[in-house]
Please model this.
Amino acid sequence: MEKHLFRKLALFAFVGLVALPLFARGEGRLDSAIGQAQAVSAAHGMVVAQEAMAARIGTDILQQGGNAIDAAVAVGFAMAVTYPRAGNIGGGGFMVIHRAGDAGGDDDATIDYRETAPAAINDKTFLDAQGNADPQKSRDSALAIGVPGTVAGLALAEEKYGSSRFTLADLIAPAIALARDGIAVTDDTADSLPHDLPRLLRWPSSAQIFLKADGAPLAPGDRLAQPDLANTLEAIAKEGPRAFYQGPIAQKLAVAVQAAGGVMTVDDLKDYRAIERPPIRGTYRGYDVVSMAPPSSGGIALLEMLNILEGYDLAHEAEAQTLFLMIEAMKRAYADRAWFLGDPDVVQVPVARLISKSYAGQWRATIDPARATPAVDIHPGGVVASEGRNTTHFSIVDRYGNAVSNTYTLNFSYGVGLVAAGTGVLLNNELDDFAAKPNTPNAYGLIGFKANAPGPGKRPLSSMTPTIVLKDGKPFLVTGSPGGSLIITAVLQVVVDVIDRGLDIASAVSAPRLHDQWMPDKVFAEPGLADNLITALEARGDSVMVRHLPTSANSILVTPAGLVGAADPRTRGALAAGY
Ligand code: DON
Model:
């Protein structure tokens, strides 16, 4: 990459700041203090999710003898009903699975159920007449809607990795009942609706669900009934995922998207496939790290950062120095993310190189332990200078030694805001995760280049990082988070807090976090991070801004004494439920 490109990149430090205020919108709770997560212990099985009814449904399945995958499928469908701003069947996500085998024959699998771009999407779709990126198109219009992957992904998980004790219909049944009977509106839904209402109100089919007869948004104690969604779920329960991707439901989805100005067709839906991909695997101080491969950037970026950090004795560094080194690692991993990563079915991603220890060593050699490297001096590719918003994560461990780490999303809170009439399905605006134009930030301030250009059938690059850390081949830590670009660094900090700093899981999940994504050239720190640490980072040349970083790292730690779960205190209503 030529030098002047990097001068230009500096400009985006500014543009990124315009996009980044989105971060401040909160993952529910917006008051300044982060509470302390409650550590919840259990002997047999546990679900930690962002919504309590769904978490309990998952625990119930575990108690009935189901495995972690059965529970994940039940939680995934239930949250489409109980947590409509992010739980979904109109979006997509990623699932990382650890399966206990006989005689140590454990294995790991991942399911990519990311949305795809409809066939009519190309690299001009999200530009205005002047050829500039048009955020209105990529975030607020029906053009932003990707072909939903959740139904295919959950069905594939169940078919391939479920215990066979339950049918898909059994696992969807609780969701159908909640959609049909209605649920008491949760605090989280009531908190988020006023903010997101303008997007939902653009379509009567959405307003009908989330508004009362008098036009006010649903409030705590009101009932949220979703009869159309119940019918859609019932059809999937009866006929399998085909009922969603073909026939009358698919037709209604395509008609609704096109009527709203989008381009998704019944053929796009018919062609959708969830894909099983080899996980990204690496090691960190003797632990195995299993995470998500492209089209998520999460696994690669997480391992790049861990590999860089492994070269330092973090357990014995001063806290400020640990934070400083983490920030330096973040900048470098996010620079590589911007340049190299995209849909692996369309672009060549140099995975092995990026996650190798030797590559991390090259990056480490560029870190001055006393001085922050300015973002413009970091060139993707290491030493070679050539070149809201809303999601939800749940972690599950069962009594058999299986684990699931699942993150799925509509992108923004309530996605694009469009409920496809007659289906109850709220649709995503995931295609803003493409680089609408090279070097132009998306809603999370992330820039990208050719590798992540919009294209027909292509999956936009994600930051979702569902991760399972293994110790001696067995699940040790199950974690992940929502938060757009903040996800990967949140997961990094939970891993480092547990492994290097020896924090218990509740403290690791609650600790104020910080974030650096290369561009803009800023460190964001959560309120609560000690002033002396911020001063120490600034003394090394980092520019630190304090702001809310809405993540929610619902995690489980497997300890000799049993399972310990921690629901992230940043999210109202999250629950660790075990038995
Ligand atoms: O896939 C991604 O990286 C984003 N669409 C995730 C969005 C997100 O996490 C928003 N949540 N708070």
Summary: The two ends are 54 Å apart (CA to CA). Residues 27, 388-391, 409, 411, 430, 433, 462-464, 482-484, 487, 550 surround 6-diazenyl-5-OXO-L-norleucine (CB under 6 Å). Residues 319-340 form the longest helix (22 residues). The longest strand covers residues 403-411.
